[in-house]
Amino acid sequence: MFEGFASLPVTEWTLLHGKTTSLRQEVSFSHYYIFLGKQSKDYVRSQHNSTTLPGESEQSLTIHIELEKPTSGGLGFALVGGDGGTAVLVKAIGSGSAAGLDGRLNVRDRLLQVNEEDLSGLSHSEVVEILRRAQGSVMLTIGRKPPVQLHDPQSTGQTSPTKMRFQQQNPQGFDAERPRDNPGDPHEIPRNNGVRGTEEQNGKDNLQHSADCTADCFSGRGSGGRASVSEYEDVGGDEEERCDSGSWSSDDDQPGLSSRTPAPPTGDPIVSEEELMSLALWKAPIGSRYRGGSLEMLISNLQQQLNQQQPLKEFMTLEHLKPVDDCLVGKAAENREKNRYRDILPYDETRVHVGDQGYINASHVRMPFGTEGYFYIACQGPLPSTTSDFWQMVWENKADVVAMMTRQQERGKVKCHGYWPDKLYKPMNVNTYQLILEKHQVVDSFEINVIRMAEIETGEVHYVKHLRFVSWPDHGVPHSCEQLVRFILYMGDVHHTGPLVVHCSAGIGRSGVLICTHVLLSLINKGLRFDIMDIVKEMRSQRHGMIQTKDQYLFCYSMALEILMGIQQINQQEAELS
Length: 578
Description:
Layout: E1 11-16, E2 24-27, E3 47-49, E4 61-68, E5 77-80, E6 89-93, H1 98-102, E7 110-114, E8 117-118, H2 124-133, E9 137-144, E10 149-151, E11 159-161, E12 163-168, E13 188-189, E14 197-198, H3 216-219, H4 273-279, H5 292-307, H6 310-319, H7 328-331, E15 351-354, E16 358-369, E17 372-379, H8 387-396, E18 401-404, E19 409-410, E20 413-414, E21 428-430, E22 433-442, E23 446-455, E24 461-469, H9 482-494, E25 500-503, H10 510-525, H11 532-540, H12 550-577
Parallel strand pairs: 17-25, 18-24, 18-25
Antiparallel strand pairs: 1-2, 1-12, 3-4, 4-9, 5-6, 7-8, 7-9, 10-11, 13-14, 15-16, 16-17, 19-20, 21-22, 22-23, 23-24
């Protein structure tokens, strides 16, 4: 087939009626993070006026705030709401960000315009995209309600202003914080088997909101029963759109509030920006097919194939591939509860065994190159009931890298349980194993967690790097391959033992894209020919449905083209210097 061998810190909302009360709720949503560096000193002070913009009530102040967006990064605040006619509100502000340093933007401000572009009627993801595209000086127009007057039942009948205090629990600052949602774990409680479960949240959200911001935006009960939120991580839902949404699973993860707090950054970085950049620099050897006229022909051929929609024809052909077997083990009654989706099951022939023939929804994927090959385990996102099986699989296969390609909640649906420790040096016991988060770092497109895994009975230790890619866009596929390539190159660089464990939610869509791209990069880096259709066909012979959508398949072609054009640019720069 182939030639040769090739997560924001939890915010405390304290409602005070003239004095501190016992009302305290920790809330966490999927946030849209706009990371940034330092703010320009030459910002323009906001000016208050009485203008009423579309969608803003006449009782609100309209405020203009101009912030300087750095060349790499964002403005430093999180948003919530926006779908189903709800307002787009400021959810949180990073203390060390441009918005935080400027000091004029407040939590619960309503975002009305970005650079005079009206946001009325736009969805949450559309607003996020507008903010992403904005460059340089960004003019925000926001609406702000006057303080709400609430009656204090303990007062003498007079009304007093309600005070809202927001406390960030990570004093190190926003840029060092780790995006974290875990919407499936409203309250983490230990179970007898050591696997953390969930406890139903009692009571209603007591936060009070103005007419322009319904309580649904913050309580997780937006239009259609769920709030619409987003963060710097993946919000999109194309991953399982074609999966059978009916699940056998008894997944007790429910979309809601979370008590999980992000780990603060550790001292020395796990990897520097310079080291990451160096991983992306390739120099094709003299005589390689990835230099000169050969490379130009390859680029021209790929462009022609994309223009003629050849990849779409290939994808339709791949869709007619017949399953290798009937997945009888995964369909067995005793294993139904272990499957997140009833129609995404591992082949009996390639399924991963845990313990003595035990079942987990995971598949061995071997990508051969001549007499050798790369080895992967592609699996579904763990459920609360399969977390112990997942870590047993990691232990038994001595896998030292886990690549996570999904967020825990997308579009109001739980996609993956929070199966890894998220507090530094706080032990998390999972069946016969103890997990300790020893190091944590957030880079521009992914998170790195260094987890110490120990077998409780023997004391044997195994280290795992848990890599969480957080830059998949709200919908569809990434617009550029740069961040994903950097993630995959780092993943390959730190992988030393066992198979690479890769998962998304179902373990076939984004997991397939990652494996395909890793193989593609390896072939190119070794100067060997590649055939994307052959790569996908080989993956699908070992786990059904790998590369799940036509957009994902087209993205693999676009990735190949962008990579080759990048190599061509490096070759040209090298020639100019010689």
